[in-house]
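Hey team,

Filing this mostly as a record. A colleague (T.K.) asked me to run one chain through the structure pipeline before their review meeting, and I want the input and output archived in the tracker in case anyone asks later how it was produced. No errors, nothing strange. Just documentation.

Input sequence:
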Amino acid sequence: MNRQKADNTKALKDNLEMILEENLRLANNLNYEDITLLSEYLKTSNRIFVKGVGRSGLALSGFAMRLIHLGFHASIVGEISAPAISEGDLLLVASGSGTTHSVIKAAQKAKAEGANVVCYTTDENSELAKISDQTILLPASSKYDYGEKVSKQYAGTLFEQALSLLCDAIFHTLWQQSGQKPQIMFKRHSNLE
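Output structure:
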């Protein structure tokens, strides 16, 4: 292996370790009681809608898919097949900065229709957090944070990673509580892929 390749291999390993360490540090600073409240919203809502932009939207879309596997009625805001939101429903949104215009507009509309809103953000004083019934604070940097105070990673990357991992942890906890067999859940998996 030449020197350049060895340097690249070491940099890749070091960067993966840094990413894992940052996510572990974030996980150790979460308010798990707030996250448990989200689980209650999920269990008691008629339908669940998710809305995020960019990588945050991708993380929530993946979470919606897993909720469907558990038997929840989940929809992705903006998809043509998404129904109208109404009282008794939940809108789950994510915006690291808490200022993403389309996410705020969706939260305002959901509240006007009588739905509950839960948000993931890095800023508990943001406009999105103020609209929401519950805020889950992820102690990460937002897309506007170019320093290295919270994360060495680019902009909002840690927020997006933590969002995805936390959604998987919530799914796994709900799955354990449900006692559903994976074979039953898999029957709800898309078969038109």
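Quick notes for T.K.: The chain has one domain: 3-186. The mean pLDDT is 93.
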